[in-house]
Specification:
five-stranded parallel sheet, homodimer, Methyltransferase, Methionine Synthase (B12-binding Domains), Chain A, domain 1, three-stranded antiparallel sheet, alpha/beta, DNA-binding, Rossmann fold
Chain lengths: ~300, ~300
DNA sequence: GTTGCAGTTTGTCTAGGACAAAACAAGTAA
DNA sequence: TTACTTGTTTTGTCCTAGACAAACTGCAAC
C-alpha cells in the first residue's frame, strides 16, 4: 500500500514547506525529485514526504537544510537524538513521574493520562501544576517529537488532552476584576495554543482579566479586538515552528494598528530566536510573564 | 494611524488568499494594486487588505471574484445581507433566546455568556444543547460574520468560549466502552474544530469511544494514528473556508493510507459543495452523523 | 425541470532569475 | 580565552509571464 502520491500543494500542507522552497530545493540540491504526471506536474511519493517532514523537524531545531539533505536517511535520526538527549536528561532526571505521564501518552491511554493529570492538579494546585508539570511535560513532548520517539499524532493527543485540562481548570477560577485586561491570541499561521493557555492560567490566578480569543487572528482584527475590549495588554504566542523572519515585521505592523496605550507582549519559544525590538516586550519563560505582569502593575498602580 | 503596509506574505496570512491568487488578480482584474518598495516588492495598504478579506468572505459564500472585484465597495455589504437575511430569519424566528446569547457575545461579555450557556446546558441536557443551541448558534454567528455584523474577533471569542463549554461537558461523560472507536481530527489548513466537538459530544453520549486529536493532522499521520488506535472510524471536518477543489483528492489519498477496515467519514459545511465519492462517507448534518453511527453499529453487530 | 454542450472564468502549476537577510567563518582586538 | 568586526556562503522569498485543467455559466434541446 502507500502507493499514493502527493501533488505539491498537498506536500506543502503536510510538511509546512512552501511550494517555493520545494521547487528551490529540487533545483539547488536535487532533492526532493518527484516524478511528473501527464501535465508535467510534480508527484511526490509518500516516502519523500516523510523525509521532508523529518528534515523540517530538524530545521525547526536549528539545523540547516543544505547539510540535512546531504545526510543519508539513516543518520538523520542520530543527529537529533544526540542533540536532545542532553537536554532531556537534565530535565527529566529530577522528576521521574513525568516519565510515567509520557508513557501513558505513548500507550495512547487517554483515560489514564487524564486521571493522572487530574490527581497531579489537585495535589499541586494550579500554579505549580502549570509550572512544574505542564510546562516541563510540554517541553519533553517537544523533544520526544524532535528525536522521533513521539509521532506527530501522539503529540497532538497530548496537546488536545492537556488543553482540556487547563481550560477546565481555568473555568473554575473566578473572573478577575482586579488586574489588567489581557487579550491572549496568536497571529495567523500560528496554531499552537498550549503556551497561551499556561499563561492564561497563571494570569487568571493573579486576578488578571483574561480574554482568550483562540489562535490565528488577522493583525487588523487584533487591533480592533484590543480597542473593543479596551485591552491593557495584548499577549501573542510564537512557537518554534513559526518562521522567525516574519516576526519582527509582524510586531511592527501590529504595533501600528494597536491603540497607543496597549502594551504588546510577545512570548513563546519562537521569540528566543529574534533580537530585541522596540515594538514589543519579549517574554521567553513563564516566570518572565509573571514578572512582566507584576512590573505592569507597579507602573499602573 | 493605520499607515502600516503589508507585504504579500502578510496579506496571504491575513486574508487566506494565496500569493499566486493575489498576483493573478492584479494581472487580470487590476485589483488589488499595491505600491512597491525599493526592491520592487508589493506593499498593500491596510484598506486593500480589508477589502480583500471582505471579498474572500463573500467568495466562501459562493460569490465569484470577477464580479465582486467589479462591484464598488459600498455595494459589497448589501450583497451579503440580502443573501443571509432570509436564512437568518427562519432560523432565529423560532427561538428568540438565541438572539440574547448573540447579544452577549456582541457586547463582549464573556462571563455573562458563559453563565447563560451553562444554564442552558443544565436545562436542556447535552444532546439537545448541542443540537438546539450550539449548532444553530454557530450557524447564526457564521451568518452574522458573513454579513459583517460580527467582527472576526467576535466570532473567535464565541468559538473559544463555546469550545470550552463543550470540552468541559464532554469531560464529565464516562468513557464509552461500547461503541466504535472514532478518531476525530481535521487535515492541515483546516483549523475549525467546533463541528468536531459537537460530533464528539453526540458520539460520546451514544457511548462511542472518541479519540480527539485536535486539528491539522498531516495525512500520513492520520493513517498512523488510525492504525495505532485501531480506529473503526476516522471522522474529518471541513469548513466552508476550506478549498473545495482539494477535498476529493485529499479523501482519495487518505483512503489509500488508511487501514482497509477503517471507515472514513467526512463532515462539515465544506463537504456539501463536493459530489459523491467512493472514498469516504459524506456527512452534512449532525443528524446524519448520528444516523451513520447507528448504521455502523447495525452492520457490525 | 433537467440534461448536455460550448464558452468563460478562475486557480494552480511551471520555469528561471534576482536579491536581501541570516548564518557562518575567519580574522582581529581586548 | 572571549568579544567583536568583516567578508562569504547559504537560504528563503519575491518577481514575471505563460499554460492548462477544472469549475462554473448560460443556452439549447429533450
Amino acid at each position: 500500500m502507500n502507493t499514493a502520491t502527493f501533488n505539491i500543494a498537498a506536500v506543502e500542507r503536510d510538511t509546512g514547506l512552501s511550494k517555493d522552497v520545494l521547487r528551490m530545493w529540487e533545483r539547488r540540491y536535487g532533492f526532493p525529485v518527484p516524478s511528473r504526471d501527464n501535465n508535467g506536474e510534480r508527484c511526490y511519493p509518500a516516502e519523500q514526504v516523510d523525509r521532508l517532514r523529518q528534515i523540517k523537524r530538524l530545521m525547526d531545531l536549528g539545523h540547516r537544510p543544505g547539510k540535512l539533505i546531504a545526510t543519508p536517511a539513516e543518520e538523520l535520526g542520530a543527529l537529533t537524538s544526540r542533540r536532545s538527549k542532553q537536554l532531556t536528561t537534565d530535565v527529566s532526571a529530577g522528576d521521574g513521574e513525568l516519565g510515567e505521564l509520557l508513557t501513558l501518552i505513548k500507550q495512547h491511554d487517554a483515560a489514564a493520562y487524564q486521571q493522572a493529570m487530574q490527581q497531579r492538579l489537585a495535589r499541586q494546585g494550579l500554579q505549580r501544576f502549570v509550572q512544574d508539570t505542564v510546562a516541563p511535560l510540554t517541553q519533553q513532548v517537544g523533544e520526544k517529537w524532535e528525536d522521533g520517539s513521539f509521532e506527530v499524532f501522539e503529540e497532538h493527543l497530548y496537546t488536545e488532552l492537556t488543553k482540556r485540562l487547563l481550560r477546565q481548570a481555568i473555568a473554575t477560577l473566578p473572573g478577575g476584576p482586579r488586574g489588567p485586561r489581557v487579550l491572549l491570541t496568536s497571529v495567523p499561521e500560528e496554531q499552537h495554543v498550549l503556551g497561551l493557555l499556561m499563561v492564561e492560567a497563571l494570569f487568571a490566578l493573579e486576578g488578571a482579566e483574561c480574554i482568550p480569543l483562540g489562535t490565528q487572528m488577522p493583525l487588523l482584527e487584533i487591533g480592533r479586538a484590543a480597542e473593543a475590549h479596551q485591552a491593557d495588554i495584548v499577549a501573542l504566542s510564537f512557537s518554534l515552528a513559526f518562521p522567525p523572519r516574519q516576526i519582527p515585521g509582524l510586531l511592527q505592523q501590529l504595533r501600528q494598528v494597536l491603540p497607543e496605550n496597549a502594551a504588546l507582549w510577545a512570548g513563546g519559544c519562537g521569540v528566543t530566536r529574534i533580537g530585541k525590538t522596540g515594538d514589543a516586550e519579549l517574554i521567553t519563560t513563564l516566570d518572565d510573564a509573571l514578572r512582566a505582569l507584576a512590573s505592569w502593575r507597579r507602573q499602573h498602580a
